[in-house]
Amino acid sequence: DGGITQSPKYLFRKEGQNVTLSCEQNLNHDAMYWYRQDPGQGLRLIYYSQIVNDFQKGDIAEGYSVSREKKESFPLTVTSAQKNPTAFYLCASSPGQGSTEAFFGQGTRLTVV
Amino acid sequence: GQQVMQIPQYQHVQEGEDFTTYCNSSTTLSNIQWYKQRPGGHPVFLIQLVKSGEVKKQKRLTFQFGEAKKNSSLHITATQTTDVGTYFCATTWGGSRLTFGEGTQLTVNP
């Protein structure tokens, strides 16, 4: 089954701990994205990557880090520097230049207590 | 920064009424995409428009891209309860930077 997989669906962490959210795609897409969604809000871009070993900051990158060592994987680390980490995190991928239709994973709901 | 503004934020309709959401930008857009997110779900791609003045239809949904490529609209004719969800417009900047409007949350009263 082709698609984009985020795990886990729900995640709980204590304040002050770093946490890494997984995102894997087997669609052979070049571009991958991370968004944050707060209740009743839109999608805010955290980081995106157009190609392996390259990524760019989005609109709200502070307190987050990413890596893109493999085409199919784009993990997001929520660091202790992120002041309000509790949110719904969505990963997406798209074929890349010339075709930008984005496919989303099911999302990870992170709660920091 | 580069962004698209979407209005209204919320829309409540009776089943059978029409619904329209609008997306506006201060700069010319290379494309506009529309997504639907059901409650508790993830956004799902509906359509992409790239040409000035383009109009596309999907059953009861009509999508328009303005002549100046600075605005777009999504119109639903005769809403049904299955139309409930949040509708987002989105666009790419510089080829791959995909950003979204704040969405219009549609509720349909049966």
Question: Can you give a write-up of this model?
Answer:
- The complex is a heterodimer of chains A (113) and B (110).
- Chain A has 113 residues and is mainly beta.
- Chain A has no helices and eleven strands.
- Chain A is globular.
- Chain B has 110 residues and is mainly beta.
- Chain B contains no helices and eleven strands.
- Chain B has strands at residues 5-7, 10-14, 19-24, 32-37, 44-49, 55-58, 61-65, 71-76, 85-93, 97-100, 104-109.
- In chain B, strands 2, 4, 5, 9, 10 and 11 form a six-stranded mixed sheet that branches. In chain B, strands 1-3-8-7-6 form a five-stranded antiparallel sheet, with no helix packed on it.
- The termini of chain B are far apart.
- The mean pLDDT of chain B is 95.
- Chain A binds chain B through residues 31, 33, 35, 40-45, 48, 50, 56, 58-59, 90, 92, 94, 96-97, 100-107, and chain B through 1, 6, 31, 33, 35, 42-45, 48, 88, 90, 92, 95-103, 105.
Q: What tags apply to this protein structure?
A:
heterodimer, A: 113 residues, mainly beta, seven-stranded mixed sheet, four-stranded antiparallel sheet, 11 strands, globular, B: 110 residues, six-stranded mixed sheet, five-stranded antiparallel sheet, 0% helix
In short:
Helix content of chain A is 0%, strand content 50%. Chain A has strands at 4-7, 10-13, 19-25, 31-37, 43-51, 54-57, 64-66, 76-78, 87-94, 103-104, 108-112.
Chart the SSEs and their pairings:
The complex is a heterodimer of chains A (about 110) and B (about 110).
Chain A: E1 4-7, E2 10-13, E3 19-25, E4 31-37, E5 43-51, E6 54-57, E7 64-66, E8 76-78, E9 87-94, E10 103-104, E11 108-112
Parallel strand pairs in A: 2-11
Antiparallel strand pairs in A: 1-3, 3-8, 4-5, 4-9, 5-6, 7-8, 9-10, 9-11
Chain B: E1 5-7, E2 10-14, E3 19-24, E4 32-37, E5 44-49, E6 55-58, E7 61-65, E8 71-76, E9 85-93, E10 97-100, E11 104-109
Parallel strand pairs in B: 2-11
Antiparallel strand pairs in B: 1-3, 3-8, 4-5, 4-9, 6-7, 7-8, 9-10, 9-11
